[in-house]
Amino acid sequence: MLKRRIRASKEKQTEIEQSLRRVQAQLNPHFTFNALSSIQGLINTNQINDANYYLHEFSALLRQTLNRSQYIFNTLDKEIEMMNTYIGLEQLRFSFLSDIQISKTLNLRDIEIPTLILQPLIENAIKHGVSVLGDKGQLQISYKEGQQPGALVIIIRDNGNSFDDGAAYGYGLKLTLERIAAINKLKREKAISLEFNKYAGTAISLIFNNWI
């Protein structure tokens, strides 16, 4: 009886992990397509040097994401590095300001979060929030401990309206919600929650319970 339960538990875990990888595999083409759209936008506005730089830097970023795509989780320091590169590239096109705040007490190399879990949320804040504001657009991302012991909180803020006009139902966000649901089945003791707050802009909070 015990062996059957253990086997059933392992089979369920394998099934969830396969589901996570399928969803993650859908995210990579979505990420690439949107980056190519940004490059096209730079070319169409005759910003050829910026387009060439974007293409060069995005190629390096894409290699990193492809190398990590086989893994469900990635260290927080690597995720922050990739997201900072992505934000810098999008600033070439949209000229918004960014502010990245990281708590000094976080051990970034020891904390793992789902690979590319932040990218669709940051993309949404840029595309539907700050992109239309130009150099008045403000994107802020903070990485800090939560109020509950062991909680990691990542907050993505923009001073636009990134969740108006149905933006919350975009494809990338849909995949993110699917991934969170699957991870919560895999790691019930480490549940992830997503909260939205609209006040003087938009804030999305990712709360990782018992992750640090």
UniProtKB/TrEMBL annotation:
It comes from the Bacteria. Keywords: Kinase, Transferase. Residues 20-95 form the Signal transduction histidine kinase internal region domain. GO terms for cellular component: membrane. The keyword Transferase applies. GO terms for molecular function: phosphorelay sensor kinase activity. This is Histidine kinase.
